[in-house]
Amino acid sequence: MSALLSALVRYRGFVFGSVKREFQTRYRTSMLGALWLILQPLAMIAVYTVIFSEVMRSRMPGVENTFGYSIYLCAGVLTWGLFAEIISRAQSVFVDNANLLKKISFPRIALPAIVTCSALLNFAIIFSLFLVFLVATGNFPGMAFFGLVPLLLVQVVFSIGLGITLGVLNVFFRDVGQFTGILLQFWFWFTPVVYPWHVLPEGVRPLIRLNPMASLIQGYQTILVNHAWPDWTTVWPVLVVGVLACMLGLYLFRRHAAEMVDEL
């Protein structure tokens, strides 16, 4: 693992340069360019606020805030979006860059790093806009806001580990890519993103607790909606699972790195 990390440090210019080029290429041919990255989340926040806060008059238990449910939704949707983007792109990153892997000599582990940095850049821009919305509406969570940092770190570790594992498997078993798309759809609805925890039957809640993303999403929502620190006892197990996923992914990567080029 230390060898992989040192390789990433040596090729950090390649990683950050690739992230920059990818960001520029994505919006180069668009009339509004990178503004689409801003307009899309703004539209989402506006729709959630109008429909759920004004039209439906939805309320969260114990939250006397007009924007309570829209903040709950945005907190879940934005952070789930980061997870889904890393997983979706990481599982196909080696297959999508087959020509690059065959023609250029560079540490292959740089590809998942590029995917992760690109997803984090997009998330940072979108979440900054959401943060402006929180401040403008008087819903900034105060000191609890800093609890988002460890939650985000745990989520990234878990996402990278799972993404690399799926990425290596997808090289040898292409059905993995199709399966991942279906898995993410079911996973989303088995995570309290759209619906609150209190609507779940008591017997179902322990099963949902086994979902690592459910604990993380609830942590984000606790901070941003209730302005309170999350229950860290539910977050540490996710960190353990994430570290194990990283170990598995890196083990598969190192063992099959040479074979992957032939399979591609």
**String of helices and strands:** HHHHHHHHHHHH
Describe the global form.
globular
Over all CA atoms, what is the radius of gyration?
A: 20 Å
Gap from first CA to last CA: 24 Å
Structural class assignment: mainly alpha
Give the averaged pLDDT, no decimals.
Answer: 83
| Most strands sheet | none
As residue ranges, the low-confidence spans are: none
- Please count the beta strands (DSSP E, at least 2 residues each): 0
* Estimated helix fraction: over 70%
The number of helical elements comes to 12
- Number of separate structural domains: 1
Topology:
Elements: H1 2-10, H2 12-28, H3 35-55, H4 68-90, H5 93-96, H6 98-103, H7 110-136, H8 148-172, H9 175-189, H10 205-209, H11 212-226, H12 236-263
Helix pairs in contact: 2-7, 3-4, 3-7, 4-7, 4-8, 4-9, 4-11, 8-9, 8-11, 8-12
Describe what you observe in this structure.
The protein has 264 residues and is mainly α. The protein has one domain. Helices cover 74% and strands 0% of the residues. The chain has twelve helices and no strands. α4 (68-90) packs antiparallel against α11. The two termini are 24 Å apart. The mean pLDDT is 83.
